[in-house]
Amino acid sequence: MEKIFSNYSLIRLISKWRLHLFIVSIISIALGVFISSPIVITPKYKSTAIVYPTNLFEYSKESTTEQMFQILLSSDIKFKMLEAFNLDKHYKLDRKDPQFITQYLNEYDDNVSISKTEYESVEIKVLDKNPKQAAAMVDSLIKFYNQKVAELHKVKQKEMMEIMNKAMIEKQKEIDSIENILTEIRSKYNILNYNLQSAEITKGLLSGNKQAVEIYKNMELYGGKFKHLDSLLNNYRKQYLGYKSSYEGALREYRKNISYALVVQKPFPADKKSYPVRWAITLLTFIGGFIIALIVIAFIESKKAKVEA
After folding, report:
1. Beta-bridge partners for 59
2. Which of 78, 158, 217, 267 could serve as 49's disulfide partner, Cβ 3.0–4.6 Å?
3. Per-domain boundaries in the chain
């Protein structure tokens, strides 16, 4: 065969067998047209959306775009799509099949594409034989993504609310305990305000007021304890207010109903199929047929050369 190509130029070989090659080419093109037709390959329409993450917090070294990418690829969303669009029937799969989940995930991954762009956005693409369903599936993916993030967000905020509520309850017990002690000191020993009373008692002692003398003795015995507890109480109240503020902030976040995806390109039903690319299939079939024909011709010429020799 190498001898054939060395003795005859490719152009002379094609010229000699031009009729046969022409027939093979016509058959190859016809075969390519047939293979790429709706009879053999079901045409699919593509719907695309481009979204940016928003209202997310970065965890560790993972960017918000990576968070969005991972959530959109999660199994939870894939199975929500299964139920929302009855994709088992749509993809002609049998739920009773032991390998149903594997088959479904493979089919889903063949038709749904999630990818990060160079501009830190996420591109969502869906291929489907129904252009309206393709667009609806992209919309639902964004919707389910928002729901999933909201669920995760609410779980986090609920945990914070529970922690802060527990801290408030414990701190309130400490406040109540100190207030009870201070109330007892106030009622038994007439110590109401250490700093203000100190000045008044000094004036009373100078004037020989018996009540001032009695309060002064009480101040000596219990004033230090009163002052310490009063300062501790103020500190505990500040801590309580801090916990309360954190609790209310978490509650506001928990009650929020916001979007976590900024859609910059909305999906729409395509009016032209994206798959298969008929011209590409036809071209490849033509090239393949032509090359095979050349190989066969070269083989035939090689055999003839041996017989003649």
Report:
1. 62
2. 267
3. 1-40+276-295, 157-255
